[in-house]
Amino acid sequence: LSEGELDFIAALRAMAGDPAARGLADDCAVLPFGDDMLVLTHDAMVEGVHYLAGQDPADVAWRLVATNMSDLAAKGARPVGVLLSYQLNGGEARFLDGLREALAHYGAALLGGDTVAAAGAQSLGMTALGRATHVPVPGRDGARVGDGVYLSGPVGAAMMGLEALREGRVEEAMAYRRPVALVEQGVALAPVVSAMMDVSDGLLLDALRMARASGVCLAIDRMAVPIAAPEARRDEALRWGDDYQLLYTARGPCPGFRIGTVCDGDGVLVDGARPDGALGYTH
Amino acid sequence: LSEGELDFIAALRAMAGDPAARGLADDCAVLPFGDDMLVLTHDAMVEGVHYLAGQDPADVAWRLVATNMSDLAAKGARPVGVLLSYQLNGGEARFLDGLREALAHYGAALLGGDTVAAAGAQSLGMTALGRATHVPVPGRDGARVGDGVYLSGPVGAAMMGLEALREGRVEEAMAYRRPVALVEQGVALAPVVSAMMDVSDGLLLDALRMARASGVCLAIDRMAVPIAAPEARRDEALRWGDDYQLLYTARGPCPGFRIGTVCDGDGVLVDGARPDGALGYTH
Predict the structure, then answer these.
(1) Residue-wise pLDDT tens digits, B70-127
(2) Closest to A33 (Cβ–Cβ): which among B11, B33, B127?
(3) CB distance from B33 to chain A under 8 Å?
(4) Nearest CB to B31: which of A5, A41, A111?
(5) pTM for this one?
(6) pLDDT of A282
(7) What is the DSSP-derived secondary structure letter of residue A206?
(8) DSSP assignment of A55-116
């Protein structure tokens, strides 16, 4: 992230004093509404930055929905509906196909949005709305020293999928083209976790965010992390996003893969050492 | 609107079967949530299309908030909060100033959003969330034959303001730079109107939309429309948007300016005739 982007986000955080905003440091806003708990998220995607120029618009629509649903999953929320912000680019028919499929998959209603005509790279946005199934709604800030660190499933599949897509092996690219948000897992985990988030930018980077939000250190056992990639690419898989697995901490036995322990200190350790280089993908 | 855009919107409408979506033909989605009524809207704005390239980013932020708040006002909803979709362009400091002012003005919390870095024209979006103050929440489809047609205040001020801005008379451009959404008026009107919407794209065009949604004709008395422009420009003022006045219908006396009557038939009549040319601005 550039200096300007970091400054801007810091200024927004200072402005977001309502507790429902969770300091803009969580996957979603969480807001009491009526006698229920509303969970809200918005993700923006730009062609050439967040998806490939020329990618099948049906896959782009699917990804736009999935990335929002994954934020809801991380709060243990069930999807209610979405608002779509769409910039016309000629790929509307395929986009609609993917949108229809994805909304049906998650049982989310199309509730509204806006369509604009403009030149340049396509810009898309989606706001998703969910209903919390468990209160308190899990945050990134609840990890406590002594908790186990867990991952819902393997990372690295989207990395392999993107490579397959770039090489024209479209059928082998499903993990990248059609990621699946783990809504049911999130609902099941919400009552038992101390902290939870989705892994969208890379396991180590997202673990660092959880560590910072919780004021602890996440010590990860490198070989305990399940990967869906050749063993030689383990370190890359730990830094690759787009798999939408859930990362969570819990005291006592818990479903999923235990990949480490919450310790006193700060940041992330991998086999006891600070990991080298970029920890994930920031965009 | 292009053929492609019309087709796309028609396809989205077919997909939006949930009653909360109101067929994507209203200003907002209206959704029972808990024991309360949630009102949701999303507006997108692109530099060079919806605002001037080089315009003060504080004014752009203000307008982005106001256009969303005006949609809530048209439902008689009180603002709760917003999610911001922001594309960096270097004008962040001024944008933050305008955003802070506008959110304070409307008592809306910044709840979340997304920030992206991308080249090209700036693309912005905002989702606003409100709470209905009166049920049933007014729609565009409730105008009935015999109702009066009302306008909350004059149109044409934003047209004059934009001209002032283009000519460098910045201080005379406030109506364009800082439009005010009529939230309190919307709340007061919600219990007494049969239909209500905000005028964002031009009085005659928005009146046509209300007529179509309600299956009636809106017969407007040209000289009864209050305008904030020279008399010679009355016909333009009736076609210009961005004033964010409220257009509504009601049976019996009602606050505001009575500008016509709901009649049997379809479309819009001005002094008994079909108006010429474009009825407003579509984007």
Answers:
(1) 999 999 999 999 999 999 999 999 999 999 999 999 999 999 999 999 888 999 999 9
(2) B33
(3) yes
(4) A111
(5) 0.94
(6) 62
(7) H
(8) --HHHHHHHHHHHHHHHHHHTTEEEEEEEEEEE--S-HHHHHHHHHHHHHHHT-EEEEEEEE
